[in-house]
Amino acid sequence: MLKVVCLNFRYSVKESRTYMIEFKHISKVYPNGTIGLNDINLTIHPGEFVVIVGLSGAGKSTLLRAINRLHETTDGEILIDGKSITKANGAELRRMRRDIGMIFQTFNLVKRSTVIRNVLSGRVGYHSTLRTVLGLFPKHDIELSLKALERVNIREKAYSRADELSGGQQQRVSIARALAQEAKIILADEPVASLDPLTTRQVMDDLKRINTELGITTVVNLHFIDLAREYATRIIGLRAGKVVYDGPVSEATDDVFSEIYGRAIKKDELLGVLEE
Ligand SMILES: Nc1ncnc2c1ncn2[C@@H]1O[C@H](COP(=O)(O)OP(=O)(O)OP(=O)(O)O)[C@@H](O)[C@H]1O
Ligand SMILES: [Mg+2]
Q1: Which residues are within 8 A (CB) of 15 and not within 5 positions of it... i.e. 6 or more apart?
Q2: By three-state DSSP, how is residue 229 classified?
Q3: Which is more confidently placed, 227 or 2?
Q4: DSSP character for 234?
Q5: Ligand nearest to the CA of 59
Q6: What is the pLDDT of residues 71-100, one digit of tens each?
Q7: What is d(CA 66, CA 59) in angstroms, rounded to the nearest whole number?
Q8: Ligand 1 site: residues with CB under 6 angstroms?
Q9: Integer CA distances (angstroms), 14 to 2, 7, 11, 153, in order
């Protein structure tokens, strides 16, 4: 009993710590000469729920993926919790990446594996390769993974095969994987683009709940303007690799969106319209 109390205490201490992200003069030129990002300067504070919007090709994915160096940048520096991830190498880079959970449009699960195995894969950064290849995760990790599944309301699916789940459920598994990873930052690149409107809201609600309950700094790329307004605490608008809007949702009017997009908002950019 005493052991359980101690463990819970340890979780709550870890969960209360979240990270800040700073972009300092970040630029990215792709090898073919395309400018992906053009002198980005931003500070994202611990616990914020930031939504990045912009036309296709504006640089949203490039920006998000620069944070954990899934895409390398060509200029400038990114600091995570005050430490340069741009300059980090080897073990230090791996340790910094361990703090950053990533959610993809296509879920990125091992489909033939069970749900719990997929969630446990969030723990690989904490153990030796041999141990994880053999699937020898400590009891603590299994408890953590089940707790993560409980948070996204699919605990009962723990021993199902991942490909037996609906798209929305699979996305919840990937959120649970980020939770099991004990991520201090969650990056989500179009997390609902493959989902229907109802499931979209469920997944966005999960992300938002985790953000408010655990305070995890969350950065999400979204296509739908009304969703961005509904869930964000701050909206960042990108156009041709530059920040053209950065402010609270209350000030992100239709006119602001038209300016970010360089044209009037189209109906299919509103989820509400698709629901009708
Ligand atoms: N691997 C690549 N090589 C060359 N150019 C690229 C590459 N990936 C992206 N780009 C270009 O960089 C720019 C930004 O692309 P990015 O994928 O970040 O846009 P996005 O805002 O995420 O778009 P979408 O809404 O379509 O996902 C675009 O002009 C794109 O064509
Ligand atoms: Mg993209």
Answers
A1: 182, 214, 215
A2: helix
A3: 227
A4: E
A5: 1
A6: 999 999 999 999 999 999 999 999 999 999
A7: 10
A8: 30, 32, 34, 36, 54, 56-62
A9: 19, 11, 5, 22
First to last CA, the chain: 52
- The ligand with the least distance to the CA atom of 238 is 1
CA distance 97 to 140: 21
User: What average pLDDT score do residues 231-251 get?
Assistant: 96
Q: Tell me the two tokens of residue 49.
A: 């729920």
Q: What is the pTM of this model?
A: 0.91
Interval 140-150 mean pLDDT? 95
Residues in the chain: 276
Compute the mean pLDDT over every residue in the chain, rounded to the nearest whole number. 90
Q: Burial code of 173-194, b = ≥16 C-beta within 10 A, e = fewer?
A: bbbbbbbbbbbbbbbbbbbbeb
**pLDDT of 214:** 94
Would you call 123 helix, strand, or coil by DSSP?
A: helix
18-99+223-276 CATH pick, 3.20.20.30, 3.40.1390.20, 1.20.1440.230, 3.40.50.300: 3.40.50.300
Of the candidates 90, 74, 78, 104, the residue with the CA atom closest to the CA atom of residue 189: 104
Beta-bridge mates of residue 24 = 77
Q: CA quadruple 44, 50, 54, 59: dihedral positive or negative? A: positive
Asked whether residue 4 carries a pLDDT value surpassing 50, the answer given is no
How many whole angstroms separate alpha carbon 193 and alpha carbon 79? Answer: 29
Which residue type is seen at 53?
V
Q: Which ligand 1 atom sits closest to the C-alpha of 62?
A: 18
Residues 6+ apart with CB under 8 A from 90: none
